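Last lecture ended with a question: if I hand you only a sequence, what can you say about the shape of the protein? Today we answer it with a concrete record. The protein is UDP-glucose 6-dehydrogenase. Below, first the input exactly as provided, then the predicted structure, then a couple of comments.
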Amino acid sequence: MRVSVIGCGHLGIPHAAAMAEIGHEVIGVDLDQAKIDRLNAGECPIYEDGLPELLTTHTATGRLRFTTSLEEAAEFADVHFLAVGTPIDADGRSYDTGQVFGAARALAPHLTRPAVVIGKSTVTVGTSRDLGALLARLSPAGEDVEVVWNPEFLREGHAIDDTLRPDRIVVGVPSARAEDAVRQVYAPLLANGIPLFVTDPVTAELIKGAANAYLGMKISFINGVADMCNAAGADVQQLTEAIGLDPRIGRGGLNAGPGYGGGCLPKDVRAFTASARTLGATEAATLLRAAEEVNESRPTAALRLIEQTLGHPVDGVRITVWGASFKAGTDDVRESPALAIAALMHQRGATVTVHDPHAVPTALRRHPELDYAEALDDSVQGAQLIVLATGWPHFREADPKALAPLVADQVLVDLRNLIDADAWRMAGWTVRQLGRPAQE
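The predicted structure:
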């Protein structure tokens, strides 16, 4: 099939590359000419495992190309994926769908024959209905342009794998014709046994919000329990392993840490909370808001643990933060817990140096007040404390003996429970891990 993907960001680029990988002819659309030029040259403007190889392969064959022209996309394809951004609105609680409706308005005049527009962005309930009405009104093809909602469930750092081998595909369809178009697009995946859930559009919109809100609550729950473990001298890791064996709870996503971040989970929990309140589900809104409050408290909780380890405030202390991206596997620093903790310590008077294997350039744009080091060894020179805040394997593999001569004090606070603490202690380090006893 010929498909277009409108919006070339963290969602659109991996989706376009994956659609080419499963055999479609794909045209990606974005307003940024410099980005389009890089993509057409096979260059990847974001860090995502496996994406550079797909871009190089499919731009070279011509199966995947990019343009700034929606007219060209409309002429080329009959199925159009909307993958533009939906940042949090000015109210801080709902989605700004301006890019979604802006892209639809710009595309509409060029839709002169029947087409299916497939929304991928996360949106407020009712968006697909309003978008369908807009396209029917503005498109020359009128009601022959239909809107399907097909929410993404991608984990940043795993976007290619999650697109090519998802655990499910959810589509909210208005008609049998629209469903047939979706089945044709995803036929190679369905042939591999990937389950397809066909719903009405409003249910599809709610499924995405509910999924991310639950993940946020699960993370906040275990972080709240980690606070209890810190206070009681218990071990959150052992606790997590034990309760995770209960199939009603499950181990996945049940990891104590500095909180959730990124471009999706924080805004999705906020927006789903707002939707619950708008729909009159006040008890659900209260529950969701409590999960948000736990997550918002994580930088302060981390600072408390850091100062307990030091035995005094961070003012005047030289501190290295390992990690800038909100999670391993991506260079995305939006709402990064690691950077929030680094910025808080900087505000409290610490001298903070940040190191990340991929996210230093993006972090520098967001927090120019911090110092940065490209190399791990350089990052710890003269440090009195290291804070491990993002779970890159790069940090797990660090050699405590080799690093010891570089630091002023051999002290490490592991907010991800990533390292082998015993091995570091045997090398002479003082180690404190989140939700685990100070002495083991």
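Comments.
1. The chain has a mean pLDDT of 95.
2. The radius of gyration is 23 Å.
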